[in-house]
Predict the structure.
Amino acid sequence: MRRAVFCAVVFLCLACGPLLGGEWISLFDGQTLDGWSVHSGFAKYRVEDGAIVGQAASGSPNTFLCTAESYGDFILEFDVKVDPALNSGVQFRSLIAGENETVTIDDKGKKVERKLPKDRVYGYQVEISNEAQQSSGNVYDEARRGRFLDDFADRPDARTAFKDNQWNRYLVVCRGDSIRTWINGVPCAEFEDGMTARGIIGLQVHGIGNNPQPYEVRWRNLRLLKLDK
């Protein structure tokens, strides 16, 4: 019952944002990469047919195209289409490491400090993978805890929500410690985590090692509705 009510509230926000006191923000103007910057790697980003296209680069580590602004509580919506051989994701409430920056994580009950390379993007990432992996829509803690934060074992609908070789509609809702995701209207991740309350949005092109194939991922209709004051 609680989940049904939550879903109803979310989709009311989608339809009636201005009436509820919020205003949708377009994160991408459809023509340029103004307001975005590349971090962590050297994959290439361009604008094509009203979409942001990220192209993998041989030898590059994970690369992220990041917003200049940080966001706290929000509804994030976007469409994505990815080559099935390329892993991707969208960071949210994420941070960019400075000089000599460390993060403290809880690894099986033990506090561990991890030093991050300068300019490394880290934090929550909603997974964009392929049908075979059955992990799209889960949330991964990039460069920090290094694991998925929800368990899809008992969620067959979530594991099969993503479709290869087509545009997939994603929805991410963050409010306080509550994090929820949907793909194509199907509920996916649902958990609470308070490690980061605010951060940037980042579009990931995953590293492909020395593979020379120019795999690509495309994003369009990137918009955000702020839920905090």
Helices lie at 2-16, 156-159. The chain has one domain: 24-226. The chain has a mean pLDDT of 92. The domain at 24-226 is CATH 2.60.120.560 (Jelly Rolls).
